[in-house]
Design a protein that fits this description.
It contains 12 helices and 4 strands. The protein is mostly helical. It binds heme C (HEC) (2 copies).
Length: about 300
């Protein structure tokens, strides 16, 4: 709060208090002048029912004085008088922080045994998986789905197909540090001839699609432009997050039009780092839940 607004508010508070005290004093004073001399409003009903204007009883006025004393005491202890923080220096943010710190302490005490454990070890502990599932629901489900099944552009975490590797350490690294998959846009480079259609047909043929004259022609382009990341055999490269193109699992859609589009337009796909958000132990617990989603027998 700037100096001006602080003074403005403080002045308002003082004026209000003086106003209240003045009003009460005036009421009591008026009464002192008219002891036992009830004023009438001039309204009369049924011939003899007169409406009187009696002052408030003394005890009632004293209650009002008490509320004023209370308000002054309140403003000494709590914030409210301009920018004066009050003797307790209380603030709602401070209270929230203190409560959060208290919760964190409770959490730490309760889940200390999970600290630093590998996610596959944690996944054997039903409580860890349960806590991990809650963390997943709150932090991951918006992108990966509540069951981890993913969506177009968001990988399925329940299959055995991993962009960045499916070992416990690789999964934990993905969660803590995030990942960015960068597929360049090849539209301009493949504009001539029928190159885009050819390389797209070749890509589809890697996953069991038809092999024809067009796809064979695309092989040459693939071997020049794509091998560096997707490998000569098309099996991808986990260090770069380049997907396996031979397993018929498609992150960005499986129809030929979608595959041609991603080759032409490219894609930078980001898994945001969750270490800073969750801290190490919670990230591990989310990882334990992800580990528990693997297909049976893996
Ligand atoms: C804002 C959306 C978003 C959120 C939130 C998110 N992710 Fe992701 N995640 C992604 C995207 C997008 C990718 C794929 C990155 C790529 O294409 O390289 C990904 C990739 C992953 C992978 C790697 C999959 C693979 O095949 O290698 C794992 C594991 C993962 N996320 C787990 C999690 C967990 C656990 C959480 C919660 C703590 C989470 N994600 C939260 C978007 C998100
Ligand atoms: C610099 C490395 C790199 C090069 C070169 C590259 N890609 Fe990719 N490609 C990637 C990455 C990384 C992704 C995953 C993007 C993501 O995370 O969403 C990808 C995704 C794809 C996909 C989508 C896969 C899916 O599951 O939906 C196709 C198809 C593809 N690339 C084909 C190609 C073709 C064809 C070429 C050559 C013309 C090529 N890529 C060249 C890195 C590369």
């Amino acid at each position: 709060m700037t100096g001006f607004w602080s003074i403005y508010i403080a002045a308002f508070v003082v004026l209000n208090i003086i106003g209240c005290v003045g009003l009460l004093w005036y009421t009591a004073h008026r009464r002192a002048n008219k002891v036992n001399q009830a004023e009438t409003t001039g309204h009369v009903w049924d011939g003899n029912l007169t409406e009187l204007n009696k002052p408030l009883p003394r005890w009632w006025i004293n209650l009002f004085y008490l509320t004023i004393v209370f308000s002054i005491g309140y403003m000494v202890i709590y914030p409210g008088f301009g920018s004066f923080a009050g003797t307790k220096a209380w603030s709602s943010v401070g209270q929230l922080k203190a409560e959060e710190a208290q919760m964190q302490e409770l959490w730490n005490a309760r889940y200390a045994r999970f600290e630093g454990q590998p996610i596959d070890v944690l996944a054997k502990d039903p409580e860890a998986v349960q806590v991990g599932q809650n963390i997943f629901a709150n932090n991951c489900a918006a992108c990966h789905g509540s069951l981890g099944l993913g969506a177009v552009g968001y990988p399925n975490l329940t299959d055995d197909d991993w962009l960045w590797g499916g070992s416990p350490d690789q999964i934990l690294t993905t969660i803590l540090n995030g990942r960015a998959g960068v597929m360049p846009a090849w539209g301009p480079a493949l504009a001539e001839g029928n190159q885009l259609a050819a390389v797209s047909a070749y890509t589809l043929s890697l996953s069991g699609g038809e092999r024809n004259e067009l796809s064979v022609r695309g092989a040459a382009t693939y071997n020049t432009l794509c091998v560096a990341c997707h490998g000569a055999d098309g099996k991808g490269m986990q260090a770069l997050g380049a997907p396996n193109l031979t397993d018929n699992v498609w992150l960005h859609g499986s129809d030929p039009a979608a595959i041609t589009r991603i080759i032409a337009e490219g894609k930078t796909n980001q898994m945001p780092p969750h270490g800073p958000l969750l801290g190490d132990t919670r990230a591990r617990l989310a990882g334990a839940y992800v580990w528990s989603l693997r297909p049976a027998g893996q």
